[in-house]
Amino acid sequence: MIPAALATAALLxxxxxxxxxxxxxxxxxxxxxxxxxDGRLYGGWTKRGTKLALGVTTQGRIQIVxxxxxxxxxxxxxxxxxxxxxxxxxxxxxxxxxxxxxTPLVVLDPASGRVLRDTLIDxxxxxxxxxxxxxxxxxxxxxxxxxxxxxxxxxxxAERRIPLPGVTAGSEPAGQDPHPRDVMPGLAVRDxxxxxxxxxxxxxxxxxxxxxxxxxxxxxxxxKRGVSQRFVAVVGPHQLAVSGRDVGERxxxxxxxxxxxxxxxGVKVIARGGAPVDVSPxxxxxxxxxxxxxxxxxxxxxxLALFTADGExxxxxxxxxxxxxxxxxxxYAYAVSTRPTHRTYVVELSSGRVVKTLPTAQPPRLLx
Length: 368
Description:
single chain, 368 residues, mainly beta, nine-stranded mixed beta sheet, four-stranded antiparallel beta sheet
């Protein structure tokens, strides 16, 4: 059995999707024994104390990893579990993939593995976020495009809904137009409030009362027909970073990058948008929160910029590189660049210094 150090390591990696190892944070060289996963790491993972819960394979399985043993929980759903929440020691929530316009939700006792509740949530989950009580889910209508809904799921799996009039979400099939339409607002949760980012605004939702206020952020260049995605991240005690992309018939364009102060609702423009962007996962013009506050962003075709929580630039690394994907773990950023050469760069967050260049197209998935 693997040593207890694995469960408390600052950095974990799925080297090939089928195992976990502790790795050196600079070289990514594996160290110690591996934890074999019962299938491939699908997407969802959460931590409670020194225990990790991970969604594995497409058969509705969850694997608990700690310093003493690894256990397999079966949800009874043949669905990939892509979002997990561990609100209490005795409750684990797992969210599956869409089935006939409804989304599976399973509540388990992680100690016994017993399924306590198995239900379906009406609607398409656009974004999900773990909360202290359970899960917050941004839902689109079951079919078509219309007003979104915020679903709050507690530790027992009970659901409470808050309608979001004026927040558009959902999908339309291509029909006679070869380019289907997909509208996906962003979602972030902090201190009993949800923040929903649309094309031109952020909606502030009180999770207790359901009260909502809409604050203008900026107009964005939206594709006439195609994909419209927005992302919002908590990057400081009172700051949000809002970004996104619009994918049209011929190109994908950035929706810009902005920092919003939730005390004054003032907006600081980091990048105005409109520039072509990569459509690969992680390739959007975006921002990732940094440990301790601030964020890393790639608001231009070249470079990885590090900002304070207020959006003040600290340093830009990789100025001559096109950054296409970024992960943050511990004290480092791991940036994948495809031009002029395909490499992964390990960037020290405190200084912006490149401490290692790895001759690999993609680093392992980091769970630090």
